[in-house]
User: Fold this.
Amino acid sequence: MFFAVIGKPQTWRNVGYLLLAFPLGIFYFVFLVVGLSLGFGLIITLLGIPLLVGVMAGAYGLGEFERAITNYLLGIDTPASHRLSVPEGWWAKVKTLITSSETWKRILYLFLEFPLGIVGFTLAVVTGAMFALVVSPLFYTQGWWAEGFDWLSSWWVVDELWEALVVAIGGILVGFVGLHVMNGVAGLWGIIAKGLLGPSGQAQPAQEPAQPLPSP
Assistant:
């Protein structure tokens, strides 16, 4: 139902994740841009190579962190990856880290979280502002509304009770629409997270050796 969205725990987990994505997205963006820029800039001195490997390893680890919090907050089920669990030693791990598509998908995901954080934060602020209008019948003649609320640059000045009630009801309705939109954005982001943070391929189950046919 339209109004039941406010009472669903998943709604508030989605809101929490979208708000969390804003600071995390800024951190991921700065980490990747600075790290990759320094790494490629210093690659001629050979110092850039270990720096780039470190940035890629950090991005892989941050991707695992994101996989865990998206599973918890967005209610998805992205399986863990064991692509780097190779037994041949550190060089094999570095080679796998660089060549694995999972590493590059995680880097793409971390870059994408920056615009997601902006969208999520904007939706949360606008939705919260709409719900805040519920108090307009109490304050439209007080404080900063003493001379009437200048609504939409004098297009509509709220200076009567019925007008304040219209603003309050409209704000509530738009606020509920905002919650539904945030749920939709979170659901779409969950699909993206599952595609970019999940393992690239599942290991095929070992086949049992064929049993010899019984002799007649």
Q: What stands out?
A: Strands lie at 149-151, 156-158.
